[in-house]
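How a chain folds remains the central question behind the approach discussed here. In the encoding step, the backbone of a single protein was reduced to a row of integers, each denoting a local shape. We regard such an encoding as a compact summary of how the chain folds. The sequence in question and its structure tokens are set out directly beneath this paragraph:

___
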Amino acid sequence: MARLKGKVAIITGAAMGIGRATAQRMAREGASVVVADRDLGAAQAVAAAIRERGGNALAVLLDAVDQRSIEALIETTRATCGALHVLVNNVGGTDSTRDTTVLDMDWSCWDEALALNLTSTAYTCRCAIPLMLQSGGGAIVNTTSMVAIRGDVRPTAYAAAKGGVIAFTRFVATQYGRQGIRCNAIAPGLILTERATPRPQAVLDIFERQTLAPQHGQPEDIANVALFLASDEARFINGQIIEVDGGLHAHNPTTPDLVALASGLPNAG
């Protein structure tokens, strides 16, 4: 299929993990992909691999916490591609060793998390929307997180920033939907990217027990949803937060313990 044929798509944080999988997936569906990342060498490798497979891709250096770098990304896209139809704001993260509880966190994490996760998303949208409007509309896919949906013991600043992404997503959808711009967000659960894979097996076991899917999430699982939201197949979906977590948040949190308890009782089914 060629669901994005003739479309121009920017994917931020596209040198690895979910961003790379999304760039590759959208390129296979016909999009001209702008691979934006602070690691220009890795971004160039992703773009080269896409071109080797017959796709169209351009690597651009992006420092997501530098407004001038974001402006340059949009201007490069305008000058090179002439239009913009899809924006995937994938950049994000935090330092989990410093971003802990409200009282114990390194407070500098607060500003860092807001800058990288919320402000970068907001400013990239601010810069991209005018070019999208000139291009006849488009689709924005923001990345939030499962920790923005439910409370946890950490990472506090990251969760607050990703919660802001949820609100911002709905405001963009409300303000520009009638002008042809859709803005949705994906809230990934545990995804085994290069960053997540080294987690202790005990942690992975906990997620396995709590997740309704029989396997852990992969970057391609998020890329497939981003592709759908960017395509015309999702033309009537706007301002929504899609949880892609294998059913982690679909059940009562006591369910796994109750199932285990029941299995040890006499006459348990």
About this structure: Residues 8-199+216-250 form a domain with the Rossmann fold fold (CATH 3.40.50.720). The beta strands are 8-12, 32-37, 56-61, 86-89, 138-143, 181-188, 241-244.
